[in-house]
Amino acid sequence: xxENECLLREIDSLKKENQSLKESxxxxxxxxxxxxTLFDTMNEGVAFHDLVYDNSxxxxxxVIRQINxxxxxxxxxxxxxxxxxxxxxxxxxxxPNLEVYSKVSETGVPVSFEIYFASLxxxxxxxxxxxxxxxxxxxxxxxxxxxxxxxxLKEKIIRLTSPIDDIxxxxxxDLFNIDEIQKIQDAFASAxxxxxxxxxxxxxxxxxxxxxxDLCTNIIRKSPKGGxxxxxxxxxxxxxxxxxxxxxxxxxxxxxxxxANITIGNYHIANWLVGQVVLEDVNKDLTLEYARQIExxxxxxxxxxxxxxxxxxxxxxxxxDALFIIANxxxxxxxxxxxxxxxxxxITKNEEKIKALNAELIEKxxxxxxxxxxxxxxxxxxxxxxxxxxxxxxxxxxxxxNEILSENGLESIRKKTETIINKEMPEAxxxxxxxxxxxxxxxxxxxKFSRLGRTALNSKLINMNELISEVIKTFEYQIASLGVEVxxxxxxxxxxxxxxxxxxxxxxxxNALKYRENKRKGKITISGIIKNGLAVYTVEDxxxxxxxxxxxxxxxxxxxxxxxxxxxxxxxxxVKKIIDKHNGSLWVxxxxxxGSRFSFSLSVxxxxxx
Length: 610
Fold this sequence. Notes:
Layout: H1 3-16, H2 19-27, H3 32-41, E1 45-53, E2 59-67, H4 69-75, H5 79-82, H6 87-91, H7 98-107, E3 111-117, E4 122-129, E5 135-142, H8 144-160, H9 172-175, H10 178-192, E6 195-199, H11 214-220, H12 224-238, E7 246-249, E8 256-264, E9 267-279, H13 284-293, H14 298-305, E10 310-311, H15 313-378, H16 380-405, H17 410-454, E11 459-462, H18 464-474, H19 476-482, E12 485-488, E13 494-497, H20 498-514, E14 523-531, E15 534-541, H21 571-581, E16 586-591, E17 595-603
Helix pairs in contact: 1-8, 11-14, 15-17, 16-17, 17-21, 18-20, 20-21
């Protein structure tokens, strides 16, 4: 099993390790001592809650009913300070996960999601369960270590998938399990009676030294001059060539060293060094001279030098030849591992592309269904009107012609003509013009909606205070004539397409003006905050409001709840499409006669692909 597989297996194990324990806790919540022991000894933070609803039955908060010691430790709070209190009272804000918790409580279907707590610098997997409506349990599992492993793996994959002509970021340890390589190196050193070490091309150790002699380890390498010479010697011998094994007299002590390059294709990534042996005809006087040069104790140097293994030049050459064969095989494996990593990454990317294309296809099909519906239904209505009133006009002209050609008196012709010209014809023209105007608006809406799907985003940092000021200026006349009060507070900036975000605010303000409640002075408030790393904007009014049962329908193309109101029902559909195009979220909070709050989120960071 290679290192990548080990990492993946460890990540998967960490994900699955405590799942059954979590479910057992929720299922046994009321079973006395067993539950109590499990609850108190779990490493995960556990909390039980009761949802709080407003007068209309909408969840607005939740009460913390019980927490375990691990929860106290994780969030640095004391249970006596929080039990019986609402989340907002304890933490000072409404939980961003309230919608998820209430949905689990309503449906009984468990949900898990990951979240980052900036204040703790930790990642958690939150598992939510509910056996009773209005109650839920949340279990917080610290997954920071797993996230760090995932990040390390991601960085490794980035290095492995770099272009084949840019191998500078790929490391030997990216391609092999170092523990397994260490075992091979140790066995080789033991079998041949040599010392062994694998280094990078700069002489930095990758593996741990195998069978190093005390002369090198405790005397030469501990000397500043000797250590520097050792490193220099390792680099020189490691870069000597790839046509065969290399061996030379060590620059630091006169011992014999050998080396073989490890490559990926033609790219040099590591060296396997062997040596720390003495040839049988070595000159001891030269080695003692070296001891004086690097300023070490000559007596200790000589004592340890005499312990260094001795062998013939022919035997060491045979060991170097064997090392060269092994290094070549490792080089072949390195190339295969790199190609395999790239193949896996390519497959993964293709799968992600297919998923993205499928999601886009589903979205396009939904849009197409809406357009087909509009074409067959909404456009049919004005066409029927045009057809019907054109028939009325035709019949009127037939009657008029018949009267003129008849033998009736002029008075009879005049009366009949007056009815046709003054009543029937103007009414028919009125409906024909109205129907053609509606058709033109519907077709324009369809074109605008269709073009938006093909328009590329021109994303940049938007000064939202400047943008909203410009939007409000375009409504100055309507705002003044209707006596509506429009205010906005300091808004956080975000990244997005400025023209499209302008359209979002324009459509939302336009709707607020259209659907105002005439019984009271109209008010529109625009606000924004940073929440969970996103900019969240809200356009709130005190208008007619929207019944809850229609909240999911108002964003459909050409959906109009009030057929007597102006507009063709495309404004909110465009808003949703624009926010979706920015990978944001859009939602509404509203009640009949109490006004509406339209909120949407946008990124405060530039998207990676932009």
